[in-house]
């Protein structure tokens, strides 16, 4: 993705010119470079960069929100005397095909609400997920597919 | 102001680490314990590191903090996945509260 490299180069030049070199300066340089690239967008007709970056940010925001929610949920089960967990292992059919996509889905899933990827089937089509608070199997399966997997695939395939 | 923020982050992070440690003792089986360790642990350690970055506000320290958090996020799920898989395959019994096991039916 050369546009990303170009954008990082812009940010680096911006930081060097200002000579202060803090993270904030680098990030504002990156944002400025992004706007400049976006304005000159018609020069790069076949790039998916302008769709990819907002979707990546969207995925990151979703992921951190889920990380906090899941941690609170698990924490609640640990510190209250009565257990509320209803664990179960369910198979989730994967839309992700390449190894990188499956890697991302499995790993980010391990970090989101009460889910932990346990195993992948031999044909790489089903991911077996351990769910800690399993209310309804089909709803949970849909949540995983529409929540995390869809967002990851949007980033990878745009 | 920054002291308050640092303090809050530190206390929250330590609490999550404590919960992760308690979880290893209190939860019923290996797989549920892995939930406590990966989630509460990552968030706890991440918050403590973030508190350092906010407190010192120096590029070197912020960069290092960012890398530590990235490494935590990369390594924790891989380790958890491998431990879970190894324990499942070697036949460690699941908790009695487990509702379904679709991996078994395969």
Biggest sheet, spatial arrangement of strands of chain A = 1-3-2
Q: How many individual β-strands of chain B? A: 0
Most residues in contact, chain pair and counts: A-B, 37 and 44 residues
Q: What's the story with the biggest beta sheet of chain B?
A: none
Q: What's the average pLDDT of chain A?
A: 79
Oligomerization category of the chains in this entry: heterodimer
Distance between the termini of chain B: 56 Å
The domain tally of chain B reads 1
Number-wise, the strands of chain A total 3
Percent of residues in beta strands of chain A: 5-15%
Q: Secondary-structure element order of chain B, as H and E?
A: HHHH
Shape of chain B: elongated
Rough outline of chain A: elongated
Which runs of chain A of at least 5 residues are low in confidence (pLDDT < 50)?
A: none
* Secondary structure category of chain B: mainly alpha
Mean pLDDT of chain B: 83
General description of the model:
The complex is a heterodimer of chains A (about 160) and B (about 110). With about 160 residues, chain A is mainly alpha-helical. Chain A contains 5 helices and 3 strands. Chain A has helices at about 1-20, 25-40, 50-80, 100-110, 135-155; strands at about 90-95, 115-120, 125-130. In chain A, strands 1-3-2 form a 3-stranded antiparallel beta sheet, covered by helices on one side. In chain A, strand 2 (about 115-120) and strand 3 form a beta hairpin. In chain A, helix 1 crosses helix 2. The radius of gyration of chain A is 20 Å and the shape is elongated. The mean pLDDT of chain A is about 80. With about 110 residues, chain B is mostly helical. Chain B has one domain. Chain B is about 80% helix and about 0% strand. Chain B is elongated and about 50 Å long.
């Amino acid at each position: 993705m050369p546009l990303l490299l170009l954008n990082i180069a812009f940010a680096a030049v911006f930081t060097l010119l200002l000579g202060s070199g803090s993270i904030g300066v680098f990030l504002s340089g990156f944002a400025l470079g992004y706007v400049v690239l976006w304005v000159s967008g018609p020069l790069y007709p076949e790039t998916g960069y302008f769709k990819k970056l907002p979707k990546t940010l969207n995925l990151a925001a979703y992921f951190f929100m889920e990380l906090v929610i899941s941690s609170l949920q698990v924490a609640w089960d640990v510190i209250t005397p009565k257990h509320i967990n209803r664990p179960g292992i369910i198979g989730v059919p994967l839309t992700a095909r390449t190894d990188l996509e499956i890697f991302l889905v499995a790993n980010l899933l391990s970090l989101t609400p009460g889910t932990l990827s346990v195993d992948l089937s031999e044909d790489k089509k089903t991911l077996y997920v351990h769910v800690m608070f399993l209310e309804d199997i089909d709803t949970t399966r849909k949540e995983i597919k529409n929540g995390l997997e869809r967002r990851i695939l949007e980033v990878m395939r745009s | 102001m920054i002291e308050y923020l640092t303090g809050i982050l530190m206390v929250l992070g330590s609490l999550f680490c404590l919960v992760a440690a308690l979880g290893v003792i209190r939860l019923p089986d290996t797989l549920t314990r892995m939930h406590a360790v990966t989630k509460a642990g990552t968030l706890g350690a991440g918050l403590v590191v973030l508190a350092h970055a906010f407190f010192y506000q120096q590029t070197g320290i912020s960069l290092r903090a960012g890398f530590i958090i990235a490494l935590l996020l990369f390594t924790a799920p891989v380790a958890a996945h491998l431990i879970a898989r190894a324990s499942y395959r070697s036949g460690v019994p699941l908790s009695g509260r487990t509702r379904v096991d679709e991996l078994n039916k395969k």
